[in-house]
Every structure is written in C-alpha cells, then in structure tokens.
Amino acid sequence: MPGKNNVFIATSIDGYIADKNGEIDWLDAIPGLKDIDTGYDAFMSEIDALVMGRVTFETVNGFDMDWPYQKPVFVVSTTMTQIPVELKGKVQLVKGTLENIVKKIHQEGYHNLYIDGGNLIQSFLRADLIDEMIITVIPILLGGGHPLFGKLTTRLDFVCQATKLFLNSVVQNHYVRRHA
After folding, report:
1. Edge-to-edge strands of the sheet including 132-138?
2. pLDDT of residue 62
C-alpha cells in the first residue's frame, strides 16, 4: 500500500519557520487564529504517524503540556540515543537513510506520514520524498531565522491544489508534488 509524506507547517512571509532565536511565538501574532479551524484536525485525521526531527521533538516535548499526539511519533536523529521514559510506547527513535526509515515505518503499517521539522523537511525534499505540503503563511517578516526551504540538487515541481484565506490576512496553500 503506497503512502504519502505530508507537510503541514506555518512560515513567515519571508519563509522562516522559527525566528533568529529559534522562537515560534510569532505564530500567535494574529488575534483569533488559534480559535478558528485552519484544517489541522482534518489533516491529522488522514495521518497514520508523525516523523519529526530531533529539534522539533525537543521543542514539543519542552512545552508545558501533556504529549499532544495520539498517533505514533518517529523521531529521526543521529545524536539522540534514547527517548524519555515517559514517552516510551508513544515515540520511537529511528536512524538510517530516509528511504530506509520510511520503508521501516511502512512495514509497521503506517503509510500516510506527517513530516515535521525544518531540517527534516529539507532532507525529505532533497531526497524527493514529499508528496504534499500545506503551508500557512503568517503575514510577518522575520528578516532571518530558520528557513523552511534549503538548497536542492534538482528542481521539484508542485501544483497548488487549493488556497484559503483566514481572517483576511493568513494565506494557506495546499501543494501536491507533480512528477514528470
């Protein structure tokens, strides 16, 4: 059963997912945005598991709240050696090439994957392993920080399948990978 590797993420107008200090508090700059449906729940209903990078995992795990995911989470890291004991059974550490990691996750029965984390998304794009991206653009210029996109060795073509406008200021684009 073939699956899809999906991205659901927000950026600044200038394409950053975190500011120069690695902070994401600017995501709350638009009053009322947290109170409306921007499609996250519908997106998550189609997802079997999450694949996230170490920095994203550490960021989420550092929030003052219970672990927010009900679905299995696979953390890709070359430096982590273990998952915190309180997350055993919810989070697995995976290593290897992205192709082998995806194959292993598929063998465990998870096919529609949510790829999360700037560096990991860039790596998946370089390996041409992203099928769809939903990118929500917050109308802020950060002027620097951690960019969503990095250098690629080859061009990747996407088709914009849908565009939505929230609160007359936030734009969300849904892109689907177009193969030649």
Report:
1. 91-94, 73-76, 49-53, 112-116, 4-12, 132-138, 170-178, 157-166
2. 87
Any domain includes 14? yes
pLDDT value for 1: 56
CATH code, 162: 3.40.430.10
| Nearest alpha carbon to residue 125 among 80, 92, 96, 158 | 158
Between strands 73-76 and 49-53, the pairing is parallel
Query: In terms of pTM, does the model score above 0.85?
Result: yes
Which position has the token pair 């070359």?
Answer: 78
Q: What is the enclosing helix (H) or strand (E) of 19?
A: none
- Structural domain range at position 142: 4-168
Distances in Å between the Cα of 82 and the Cα atoms of 30, 85, 86, 107, 111 are 37, 8, 11, 22, 24
Q: d(Cα 94, Cα 101) in Å, to the nearest integer?
A: 7
Whether residue 41 is contained in a domain is answered as yes
Q: Is residue 179 part of a domain?
A: no
| E strands in 41-156 | 49-53, 73-76, 91-94, 112-116, 132-138, 146-147
Range 169-173 average pLDDT: 98
Q: What is the pLDDT of residues 46-61, one digit of tens each?
A: 999 999 999 999 999 9
Q: Which of 7-11, 20-24, 36-40, 63-67 has the lowest mean pLDDT?
A: 63-67
